[in-house]
């Protein structure tokens, strides 16, 4: 609201980063109250707290609308912000006719990540079961070598090469950034062929003793083809199937039939319980 009252537009890019997948139990604090007062009200009068959350979100949408009209680009982060705004009665341009979801502000997956996902590049995660930092360092090197191998392929499209280039920079500098919290795990974006080759190289490294323990391969927070999230990954599917958990189910069952020893079906994924299947 303060920025909306400024004479000049001071913000070019905007999004909401609150935990709106759980807005009434600490994921969103209404602007009308201090943090401590909000905690007390949440405990003593949850219905009143919910009313204030809705009022606060309506005010937030009104301020965003003003900034957007002045030229600020706004996107939904996939944190159920616009869904919560809809539930709060804010005018966000959604129509439920024929099961079509059309908020006036796009999801970042639709508007920003879509081009990358369409190339087949998406995040996956691996965990070194040994718990050794030395194993994670080796997996970084293995993945980096595979990426370099992929980059050296003839006739690689420029847009694909750029993805590999950026992901190589990431994996070569990840250790230096000290991003590990708890388990020795890493996230990397790659396409199908890159994932296959990295997985096979990990298997070989375990077999030969280069790695001291197994490596668990899993998904990351969002996915290229295994997520059904009508307010994020599958928000632009207009035939009604955005609300069907088809891709995620086919992935988890299909992977198990093809010999995967570790499969999982996740609910929510940052969008709210019951709002996505991964």
UniProtKB/TrEMBL annotation:
Pfam families: Urocanase, Urocanase_C
Residue span, Urocanase Rossmann-like domain: 3-112
GO molecular function: urocanate hydratase activity
Gene Ontology biological-process annotations: L-histidine catabolic process
Domain Urocanase C-terminal intervals: 115-278
Top-level taxon of the source organism: Eukaryota
Descriptive protein name: Urocanate hydratase
């Amino acid at each position: 609201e303060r920025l909306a009252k400024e004479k000049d537009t001071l913000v070019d890019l905007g999004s909401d980063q609150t935990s709106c997948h759980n807005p009434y139990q600490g994921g969103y604090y209404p602007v009308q109250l201090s943090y401590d007062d909000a905690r007390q009200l949440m405990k003593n009068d949850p219905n009143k707290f919910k009313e204030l959350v809705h009022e606060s979100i309506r005010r937030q949408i009104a301020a965003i609308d003003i900034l957007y009209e002045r030229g600020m680009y706004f996107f939904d982060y996939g944190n159920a912000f616009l869904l919560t705004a809809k539930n709060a009665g804010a005018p966000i341009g959604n129509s439920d006719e024929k099961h079509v979801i059309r908020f006036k502000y796009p999801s970042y997956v639709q508007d920003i990540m879509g081009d990358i996902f369409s190339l087949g590049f998406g995040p996956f995660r691996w965990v070194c079961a040994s718990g050794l930092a030395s194993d994670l360092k080796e997996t970084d090197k293995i993945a980096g070598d595979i990426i370099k191998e992929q980059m050296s392929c003839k006739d690689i499209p420029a847009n694909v090469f750029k993805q590999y280039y950026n992901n190589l920079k990431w994996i070569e500098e990840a250790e230096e950034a000290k991003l590990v919290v708890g388990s020795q795990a890493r996230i990397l974006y790659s396409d199908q062929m890159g994932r296959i080759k990295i997985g096979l190289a990990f298997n070989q490294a375990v077999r030969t003793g280069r790695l001291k323990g197994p490596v668990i391969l899993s998904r990351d927070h969002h996915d290229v083809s295994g997520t059904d999230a009508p307010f994020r990954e599958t928000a632009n599917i207009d035939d009604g199937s955005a609300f069907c958990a088809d891709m995620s189910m086919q992935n988890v069952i299909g992977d198990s039939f093809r010999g995967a020893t570790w499969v999982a079906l996740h609910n929510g994924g940052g969008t709210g319980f019951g709002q996505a299947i991964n």
